[in-house]
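[job 0417] fold request received: GTPase (G3E family)
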Amino acid sequence: MAAKVDLITGFLGSGKTTFIQTYARYLMRQGQRVGIIENDYGSVNVDMMLLQELEREGAVTEMVIGGDLSSYRRRFRTKLITMGMQNLDRVLVEPSGVFDVDEFFDAMYEDTISSLCGIGSVISIVDASMAYPLDRNAAYLLVSEVADAGIVLLSHTEKKKDGTGDIRADETVRYLNQAMQQFGCSRRFMEQYDQKTSGYGKDILLKDWSSLTDADFERISEASYREFDHVKLQTEQAFQTLYYMNLGRGREELMSAASELLGQGSGGKENRYGRILRIKGFFREGEKWLELNATRTGLNIRTLSEGQDVLIVIGEHLDAKAIDERIGAKHI
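[job 0417] inference complete; emitting structure tokens
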């Protein structure tokens, strides 16, 4: 039987990797052989390090990394073929946070790949804590991710005091409908929270990852995908990524730099560094490795079993020279 391939999309810092860790463990508990393809067409991939524990638990992991966009597409297809030949039941694909979903369908419809793999579920993780509305390029990528999703999972939500729903989620769902209208997509989500579905109709699930049940995971794994047309944009050059290796910086230095780099300019617009969307990386503190993950809505640090001394800055219209000066090192 051909492996089912699930695409898990989500904007920068939305929680894709955390969800994949939970979802993969559910699938493996069901006796399924699971493969994971971690995609990022930058030169360093820190999220793959977070999935190494799953590899030790029996998942097969592959990484697509480095090169220009053409090389990235070719390597992604090669990895899909490799996974398809390993007698797996499910393959989970985590793309870059600036990924156009059309890339996935283009690959899956190729004859060689379609003979080995079939499309499973397209799962979109949407960060309810983002500052909406987004600019045009970011809004387009969001629409690309949710328009064809079989199910949308909301992350970073904030419960209402009366327990009837979620403040951020209500606003996010309304914005999703506005953005889809902006790009000529006819899909619309229910805007009223429904306790029976724990979300907004059958298409949007609102639950903390830690409270997802086996029934929820079954619903997610069987969500399939939708097909809705929308206006297409070329976004290959819209986002930039700067990499800093072996900085040797400590917690306070990195937190201070991240806070300043992510700070908003006047009117909530770009600051002098550009529109930075996410800062992510690892650093050592004594014998421990720590992960730094920062967006405009918050900064988190957590302990990991292993890591690599790297800092990654992702955004739009970046002033690389100004960022280099603030960090005190030249990007690679």
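[job 0417] notes: The chain has a mean pLDDT of 86. Residues 128 and 168 are 5 Å apart (CA to CA).
[job 0417] exit 0
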